[in-house]
Amino acid sequence: MAAAPRTAAVADASDAAGTADASGTAEVSAAAPATCADPEASLRPGDGADGPAVQRIKNRGRLIAGVDQDSFRWGYRNPSTGELSGFDIDLARAIAKDILGDADKVIFLAIPTSQRIPALEKGKVDLIARTMSITCDRIRQVAFSTAYFVAGQQILAPRGSSVTAFDDSLKGKKVCAAKGATAESKMREQPHGARLVTVPNQLDCLVRLQLGQVDAVLTDNALGAGLAAQDPSVQLVGKPFTTDPYGVAMNLKDVDLVRRVNKVLDDYRSGGGDSPWMRAYTKWLAADLKGYTAPPAPKYRD
């Protein structure tokens, strides 16, 4: 019987990172592009040979995936089963199945938004599958897969609120964003006269909105749709004003793992309307986040 997936605080997984062999060392710089002409462009899928990062996962017998446990539809704890569920959870399982032959051979480690990059840098996880946008700043710190979803920043506000979009209707208001999220950066760049309030996770913003401690939330529309599904007294207003591709994040040194994950994503996209990606979208997201007919096409830089 396969071992059940676990969510646990785990010891440093970088027993882990080890020292790359000559070919791995030669590729390290390829994981972090010198420029940011197109941050979505990743490394092409590999030839299937195991490099040091994939081998350490096989030696351990478990993939360690950093995920969310508070984002409805993406990574959340199912109240009926107590298990982590969602679009990102299914993707992490698909990666575990490809590498280890068993979708249950994964340890889920719940990571706050602000700790995603530190968790990779310190070797606490093999990868992060947690609605993480690919940005120019981040690709200098971590390596990303090709994009597996594209979202956009949008305002979440109570129904009947005078806040109507990411515009001057925010003047004098308190706006919540998760610390370390793209939304925090956008609010600091263009506050529209609002006061920024940061919290560890997106769900904390919803709680503050419900308590009247903030007037609006800035978040990805993909996450905002999940928050609105949990509380019909709030809604997304205005239109998305950014393009935020989500990628699986990995340590810059783990070049072979980046290529392996991109192979998994190629398979995940394949099959048209019956692809694993479309099945996951239909299962988790379609009810609240309509209009997606296909996954984003991969972009490569090599």
TrEMBL record:
GO BP of this protein: amino acid transport
Keyword presence, tRNA-binding: no
Pfam families: SBP_bac_3
Region listing for Disordered, in residue ranges: 1-54
Entry's family note: Belongs to the bacterial solute-binding protein 3 family.
Descriptive protein name: Sugar-binding protein
Keyword terms: Signal, Transport
Signal peptide segment: none
Keyword Signal among UniProt keywords: yes
Domain Solute-binding protein family 3/N-terminal: 62-288
GO cellular component terms attached to this protein's record: extracellular region; outer membrane-bounded periplasmic space
Organism: Streptomyces albireticuli
Biased segments, Low complexity type: 1-40
